[in-house]
Amino acid sequence: MYGYIRPDRGELRGREYELFRAEYCGLCQTLRERYGPAARFVVNYDLTFLAMVLSHEKPISRPLRCPVHPLRKRYIVRTDPALETAADQSVILTWWKLSDTADDANAAEAAAALAARTAMLGAYRKAAAARPAFDANTRKCLAELRHIEITNDPSLDKAADCFARILAEAASDARNEGERRILRELFYHVGRSVYILDAVDDLAGDVENDSYNPLRHRLRPGENSLREDEKDALRATLNLSQRSAAAALSLRSEDLWQPILENIITVGLPEVTRLVFEGKWNKRNRRNEIPPQGADET
Predict the structure, then answer these.
(1) CA distance linking residue 156 with residue 159, whole number of Å
(2) Separation CA 226–CA 204 (nearest Å)
């Protein structure tokens, strides 16, 4: 995925942040156990969010030492079945993203993606067997998105919908139909936000590389950035999706994860939106977290 779905650490209580980190590290550990050490490289904040939403367990963490932090043990959630779901879906999403890159990127990037995809073949087959519905839906939605790209369709809504339906399928692991409806709405609008943010973030590069981006149709000849009126329109549609996600989240059963999830949707995602529109996200994305509000952003 893309790393846009993350909490604002400055607005989290200390215990909440430690719990989020423990779930993130738990996903990393689960990927290693299910798919081998190399699978740790696909761990991301987006699927950590998914694991927390799907979790029905009281998280129990224990300190473990890992290769990334060999000198100090980290608390890691080890008793959350939702981590297995998130691990499987991480592998499936990574596989199809690599497939897309192998088809569309320049020669060097395509070769690297093809090599990585080949190395992941065994893990992908195992994950697809474990989550066949999620894999089939991902394949179907990406085929639709591929057609949109090939035909150079100018509709942002069509493209964002295809991507949003991929994440919405994660709701199929909910416990009952009522919960599935709530989580499908939540995941759909988060996925839609992610696609639009990525389109804004990548626009200048896509213009330079002559790559598909539905926002290119909103540019005047010779431009590679959006006008303020276009930015305002996109902020409005993102605000609508983020409000819809927050409304769905408010219907989720209250548990220890809820304050962290509320932070991600109502503080973290709007702050990422601000950074993307101000052209500061690429710099921040190299770091592990969003800085507290008011921190230096130079």
Answers:
(1) 5
(2) 9
Residues ≥6 apart with Cβ < 8 Å to 165: 137, 141, 188, 191
Domain 9-285: give its CATH code: 1.10.600.10
Tens of pLDDT along 191-234?
A: 999 999 999 999 999 999 888 999 999 998 888 899 999 999 99
Rounded distance, CA 258 to CA 254, Å? 6
- What is residue 1's predicted lDDT score, i.e. its pLDDT? 60
Backbone torsions φ then ψ of 154, nearest 5 degrees: -80, -5
Quick one: pLDDT at residue 286?
44
The answer to whether 160 and 194 are in contact (CB under 8 A) is no
Say what the pTM is. 0.89
Amino acid 298: pLDDT: 32
By C-alpha distance, which of 114, 72, 92 is closest to 31?
Answer: 92
